[in-house]
Structure formats: structure tokens, C-alpha cells
Prior knowledge:
By secondary structure, this protein is mainly beta. It has 2 domains: 4-42, no CATH class; 52-288, Pectate Lyase C-like (3 Solenoid), CATH 2.160.20. It is built from 2 helices and 19 strands.
Amino acid sequence: xxxxxxxxxxxxxxxxxxxxxxxxxxxxxxxxxxxxxxxxxxxxxxxxxxxxxxxxxxxxxxxxxxxxxxxxxxxxxxxxxxxxxxxxxxxxxxxxxxxxxxxxxxxxxxxxxxxxxxxxxxxxxxxxxxxxxxxxxxxxxxxxxxxxxxxxxxxxxxxxxxxxxxxxxxxxxxxxxxxxxxxxxxxxxxxxxxxxxxxxxxxxxxxxxxxxxxxxxxxxxxxxxxxxxxxxxxxxxxxxxxxxxxxxxxxxxxxxxxxxxxxxxxxxxxxxxxxxxxxxxxxxxxxxxx
Length: 290
């Protein structure tokens, strides 16, 4: 008789296989219907919306009041930093070649949108790795509403921001994040995720990669769904405590705090904070933050 863990692991494996087969079928049908062959893989994966003609090409800056950042970057690196010396938002890429391959940007209301390259460019994103650096005045960086970053394969580094929402969606690449946020949402297929700062609500969905979170004193809710990878949570000591629901197929739980096990729920202190972890394979370790 198979254990519940073995059955669950098998279901996950078959789900992944099915997803891959569906993706291959979708790509094959698109190539067949469009007649693009392998050129299909060169089509851009960025979204411009209906106002493409309003976009500017190449590096730039703006002194407009920006409350939201919306960045689509195919491959390379994305760095967003707050600067005490900066007087306006500036952004530059490590590329000065083909015009079609240069970044595109526009200010739409209170939102700065940055895209990897021109629409319908035939330059393959897989062969073009560019570093994007966005510098924000510290006074402005403390009053953002939403920062949204989407990449195919890129390292993402966000430092010193304060926003209601930080949303990062990437297929692969290391994520290094810090700052103060009401909500942090990360969706990645492969790559490590590190966050240090202050955040009330954290949601991490990853297929593979190490996760290390230090959410500060004000955290309330942490939700992690991972197929494979160890998880480290560095949490402050508090009378309110927290509860942990750790659903796993394979992995071990350890905690620096005194723990009371009630059913399958680990309770620390009053159990006010909520931690929910769903993992196919990987250990969960909770450390006491300094």
C-alpha cells in the first residue's frame, strides 16, 4: 500500500509531465498555424497594450509623479534601487546596438511602463541579455502603490522601495528583494528567492529553488507553495507567536521557538501569525531573527 506522500509525489510528477506535453502541443500548433517554424521562438513576450505608438525608445528619465512601475524584461538583469542623490526617475540598459532591440518606455498616468524591446522585433530574446537599472529618488521610492516585474529569464534585484504591492513573475532567475511592502507576491518556475525587510503578507509560488524570508516585525501571513527546495524563515520573537501548517510529501520541519503540535498544526506562542507551506520536497526551517 503506497503512502499518501508517495501518491501525492506521483500526482505532482504526472501533473508536470502533462503540463509540459500541453505546452509542446501549443507551441507546435502555433508554429503550424502561423507558418513561422522556429521563428516562433523569436517573437517578443512583452505586452504593450493598445498605445504602442506612445512608447519612447532607449534610455530615459522622467520627473513626473510616478506611483506604479510596470516592467516586462525578457532576459538578463533587472535592478531597481532607491537613491538619496537622484532627483528624478532614470532608467538605462546595458545595450546601444540595434534600434529594435532597445528598451521601450512610456509614462501612462501615474505608471511608468518599461518593455524589453520593440514590438515584433525579430531578435531572439534568448540571445539578447540586457541589464536594466531603474534609479528612483528616495523620497518617491517611499510612496509607491505597485511595483510589477515580469521576466522570462533574468536576475531581479529590488532594493530600498516602499510600496503597497511588489509583484514578481519570472520563469527563471535569482530574486534578491528588500524594502517595505504591504504585500509581496512571487511566482517563479526556477530560481532562489530571498527577501529581507518588512512585509505584512507574503505569497510565494515556485517549482524549484531555495526560499529565504526575513519579513520583519509586522508580518501577518506567509503562504508558500513549492515543488522542490528548502525554505528558511527568519522570524522575530513575539508573544503573539504564529501557527504553521506544513503539508509535505518529503521534508523535515525544525524551529528555534518552543512548539506545540496540535493535529498537523505547529503552534508557537498564541499562534496569531499564519504560515502555510505546501511542499512536495524540501525542508522547512524557522530561525529566530536577531
